[in-house]
């Protein structure tokens, strides 16, 4: 141990010690970006993002939305929110905040692109699940409205939470069940693609951009290197996608909360918008299980 300490005290040893973190950061960045380049983004799709509460779009899906609305990808992005988040009696305020947040994230024409439901059976609750058949019915009504506003163009892609709902919130979890119910029971809807946001363990939720490296490393270990043409279904849509925001995208996501959802910026949300991996990185998986 004394020998190691003496080496670190030398100019050469100190230089190596200081360079190691920089080299490690550079390696992680290079590895992450090179792996992300093998994942094609969702493009040329008419997309409906299904969220449970106003602020879900900013706290969990910001990197996805920021990417999807890029003109180069030629997507149409709409949001269906299944409650007004009225647990504290400020639902009308939160409706307005959702529109402001969506606009900050780049969703165009939010008055026609965002639908917010306020059904007495779908109230913001940490203890109650929502009826999947009711969710499916509201999806059907929303898609008809979107189709009228988009000149007959119908939604062909859903994006929502996975079976763990990121935070195990029962309202989040209910959306996946409702989307699958819709795809099973409504005619001619089985060709709609369903992507779900991956839930990670709690110890990975709060390491911000570092989890992009962890996720890409685990993906490489699990699936190996992708060959050209792999990772796509027959229609050409990707089986999984990853979205990593740059600094501007990360700051925009934060503004969607601090300027859009002002009523929700209690003390612990500052920790979330600073440290959460979901503010800067999303990975989505194509869900083909209709059960």
UniProtKB/TrEMBL annotation:
Record GO biological process: GPI anchor biosynthetic process
Broad enzyme group: hydrolase
Gene Ontology CC, one term: endoplasmic reticulum
GO molecular function list: N-acetylglucosaminylphosphatidylinositol deacetylase activity
InterPro entries: GlcNAc_PI_deacetylase-related, LmbE-like_dom_sf
EC number: 3.5.1.89
Pfam families: PIG-L (PF02585)
Transmembrane segments: none
Similarity comment: Belongs to the PIGL family.
Protein name: N-acetylglucosaminylphosphatidylinositol deacetylase
Provenance organism: Arthrobotrys flagrans
């Amino acid at each position: 141990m004394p020998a190691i300490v003496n080496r670190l005290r030398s100019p050469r040893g100190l230089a190596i010690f200081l360079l190691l973190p920089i080299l490690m950061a550079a390696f992680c960045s290079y590895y992450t970006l090179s792996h992300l380049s093998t994942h094609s983004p969702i493009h040329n799709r008419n997309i409906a993002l299904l969220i449970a509460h106003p602020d879900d779009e900013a706290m969990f899906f910001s990197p996805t939305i920021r990417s999807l609305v890029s003109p180069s990808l030629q997507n149409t992005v709409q949001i269906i929110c299944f409650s007004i988040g009225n647990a504290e009696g400020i639902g009308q305020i939160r409706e307005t905040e959702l529109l402001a947040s969506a606009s900050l994230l780049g969703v165009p024409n939010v008055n026609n692109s965002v639908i917010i439901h306020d059904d007495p059976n779908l109230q913001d609750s940490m203890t109650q699940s929502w009826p999947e058949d009711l969710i499916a019915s509201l999806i059907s009504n929303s898609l008809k409205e979107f189709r009228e506003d988009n000149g007959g163009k119908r939604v062909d892609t859903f994006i929502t939470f996975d079976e763990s709902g990121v935070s195990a919130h029962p309202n989040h979890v209910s959306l996946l069940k409702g989307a699958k119910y819709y795809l099973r029971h409504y005619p001619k809807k089985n060709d709609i693609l369903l992507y779900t946001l991956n839930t990670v363990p709690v110890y990975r939720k709060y390491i911000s951009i570092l989890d992009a490296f962890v996720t890409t490393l685990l993906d490489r270990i699990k699936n190996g290197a992708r060959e050209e043409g792999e990772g796509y279904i027959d229609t050409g849509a990707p089986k999984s996608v990853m979205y990593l925001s740059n600094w501007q995208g990360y700051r925009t996501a934060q503004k969607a909360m601090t300027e859009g959802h002002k009523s929700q910026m209690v003390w612990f949300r500052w920790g979330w918008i600073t440290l959460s991996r979901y503010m800067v990185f999303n990975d989505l998986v194509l869900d083909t299980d209709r059960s």
